[in-house]
Structures are given as C-alpha cells and as structure tokens.
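Let's sit down with a protein and look at its sequence and fold side by side. We need material for that, and I hope you will provide a protein of your own picking. Once you have written the record down, we can walk along the chain together.

***
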Amino acid sequence: MRAAAATLTLALGILLLSLSYSPPYGGSYTYYVTHWTEINVPNLVSAILAGWRAYDSLGEASLLFTAVIGFYVLLGGKKK
C-alpha cells in the first residue's frame, strides 16, 4: 500500500514539475479582458467569477482532498 502511494506521489510530482507555469498573452488581465465573452455572461466580473474562478476552487478542493487521503495513508489508515 505504501509503495503504491509513494509511486503515485512520485508520478504526480513529475507531472506537476513538467507543466508550464508561464502566463499566456502577457498575464491573466489581458486574457480575461480579451476572452470574457466565451462564458456568455453579460459583464466581465461575473464572467471571471462564473468561469475561471470555479476551476480554481475545484483545484483547491481536490488538493485538500488529496492531502487528507495522503495523511490517512501515511498514518497507517484504519487500525485493526
């Protein structure tokens, strides 16, 4: 079980290190201003909150879930 968790952690670490974190088009401001109509919401602020920030919140929730599961596995799981 621990070997599988270590392998999964290593694979996830390699994946995250291989991603490109450079901002497209010169930053998020330029991207939001030029692409906000893709969400089909009438104003820019609502488009940011409805569209792109939802992905950010989903990422934070999945990170928290992964951390809880990781601690559970590291601490030995359910004791018999």
Remarks:
- Residues 48 and 54 are 9 Å apart (CA to CA).
